[in-house]
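call fold(seq) -> tokens
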Amino acid sequence: MSLVTSLIYRRRSRLFGRLVQEALALYGMEVPAAAEIGPGLVVFHRGFGTVLHPYTTLGANVTLYNGVTIGRADPWVPQESSAMRRVVLEDGVVVCAGAKIVCKSGVLTVGADTVVGANAVLTRSTGPGEIWAGAPARKVGERHRVHEQGQAAAVS
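ret:
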């Protein structure tokens, strides 16, 4: 487990929570204590520039690259007035460098094993095992697991 990932899991510590938040800030990361993080989180490139909204849920084995933003599509509205409720990344989701996942209203769910491509701007929920790219993001393919070899293959 990397140092950054260790810090993310320790950000809720009563004793060291504030210190951990400041250490993450040195990496340019904003991961609020309220964000729910499942086991097996992988953060590449130390997550430089990564920001998670407090109402974010990451499932098991989620992978985040640098520059990822997960949050609201209406930041000018006070949180209590926002129609956004939560962003959920299910198990095995990969969010590539610079991708933005922003929720307009309700709950935005990124389905299990979905890939959100580099610099994509995702504003709606996805199904499981899909590949999304572009700004605005659109479905460009499907991701299939090859169980015998333990690696993923993309098919358009």
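Helices lie at 3-9, 17-26.
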